Structure formats: structure tokens, C-alpha cells
Amino acid sequence: MIILRSVLFNIVFYINLIAQMIVMTPFYFLSPRKTSWFVPKNWARSNHWLFRVIVGTTFEIEGLENIPEGGYIFAPKHQSFWDVYALLPWLSDPFFILKRELVWIPLFGWYVQKQRMVPVDRGARGKVMAAVMKRARDELATGRQLIIYPEGTRRPPGAPPEYKYGIARLYRDLDMPVVPVVMHPGLFWPRRKFLRYPGHFKVQILPPIESGLDPDVFLKTLVDVMETASDALLVETVKNNPHLPLPPTAAQRLKELQTQV
């Protein structure tokens, strides 16, 4: 049954993506930029509905009160394609710093440019990076939210932390609070696998780390706060979903946590 539901979900997921991009494209490009956010946010909501109805997976968000007013850096755990789009409906006007090659993709790249995402050459240095930082600072100054994954790439649940120092540089140079977010969607939508598992999980939005700390102190604080909350949430999620097949990283981390009790 899980295999059949997973196959059905994946098929309908991509049909939904293509259909909405085609049908909603005129509205998207003819609307003012902020109004046009309705299209990707509505797509995200429809995916939540499909995940619930087809697979049987639901989620809840704790800590929405921790989201500050104005500009800030939104720093979630990154385990799955789910967390790329899932929280967009709860952010007023987010943007990403993304590799410039994505801007060249037909239609998708036009969507990206409409929302003033900030493209960057990953090997960029010097003046190019200074220009990227200026763009990001200008967007944040208008009250937008920069989404950055502190570990840079998708990591399986329970994997040892590999936070990149880039988040500390952004924190220092942009002078904005950072909102940490922990969750374990990778237990239900594993990376690089087509299987989708039913169950329920939480997304926890933690209190912001205010600007002004030394970058090294900030990074240590971020890692401590996120990993402590992530460990507790992993234990809770697995306890509430005993049917889940755990990836080796999650099983190993649970064993380590049990020996610490």
C-alpha cells in the first residue's frame, strides 16, 4: 500500500506542479510581484493537501509567535524537497540566494526573477560576492525574509551536524536576526527515494537569535540551539510514529541519545 500511495503521490505531485505553472502563469506575471506570491504559496498548500489525502501525512507548526516583524534570516533544517516549499505560506515575502544556473531554466527561471531572488555563481569571490550581499541587504531592508539552510544541503535525519560558516558570515554582514527552524520531514519524505510514509510530525520555529553577536559565538549558539531541539524532536517524532522505517543516521542518533539519559 505504501508503494502504491507513493507512486500515486509522485505522479500527482508533478502533474499538479505542471498544471499550476501553466494555468496560473498569466495571473502570476500580470500581477504585482507581492500579489503573485499567491501562486507558489497556493501550490505549497495544495501539496500539503495531496500529502495528507494520498499518503496520510500531516504536520503542525509550533512557534509562529517567534517570527519577528520586518526582515530576518530564516534558517531551517534541510532534509527533504518538502522543506523547500512547505513553509512558504507562513512567510510574507521570502527570497533565496540561489545558484545562477537556475535562472536559466525556462519558465521556472522567469518565476524566480519575478520574485527578485538573488542569483550567485558558487565560485564567486570579491566584487561579485559584494554585489550579492548588497542585493540581499537591499531586499531585507524592505522587510523580506532570506531563507538559508545552515548545513548547505540536504542531510538525513539524525546525521551529525555539518553547519557551514557561510551562515555566520551572512549573520555578521547582513546584521539581521536569525530564526532557527527544526523538523524531520526526511523521515516521511526521504531524500533520493520515491517512497512516502504516513504519519504526523512537527515543525518547530525557535526564538530568533538577535543580531550583534560575534560570528563564532553566533555559530556555536545556532548549532547548540538547533541540535538540542532537533534531538528532542527526533525522539518525539519516532515515538509518535513507531511504524516508520528509520534511516541508519536516525537509528544511530537515537541510540546515542539513549546512552546519554
What attributes does this structure have?
alpha/beta; Plipid/glycerol_acylTrfase; 1-acyl-sn-glycerol-3-phosphate acyltransferase; single chain; 8 helices; seven-stranded mixed sheet; transferase; 261 residues; 2 domains; 1-acylglycerol-3-phosphate O-acyltransferase activity; membrane; globular
- Terminal CA distance reads 37 Å
Low-confidence stretches: none
Number of strands: 7
Taking Cα atoms only, what radius of gyration do you get, to the nearest Å?
Answer: 19 Å
Structural class: alpha/beta
Strand percentage, roughly?
5-15%
Question: Which whole number gives the mean pLDDT?
Answer: 92
Number of helices: 8
Helix proportion = 40-55%
Strands ordered across the widest β-sheet: 1-7-6-2-5-3-4
* Domain count: 2
Largest sheet: 7 strands, mixed
Order of helices and strands: HHEEHEHEHEHEEHH
Shape: globular
Write the layout of secondary structure elements.
Elements: H1 2-30, H2 38-55, E1 57-62, E2 72-76, H3 82-85, E3 94-99, H4 108-114, E4 118-120, H5 126-141, E5 145-147, H6 166-174, E6 178-183, E7 199-205, H7 215-240, H8 248-260
Protein name: 1-acyl-sn-glycerol-3-phosphate acyltransferase
GO molecular function, one term: 1-acylglycerol-3-phosphate O-acyltransferase activity
Pfam families: Acyltransferase
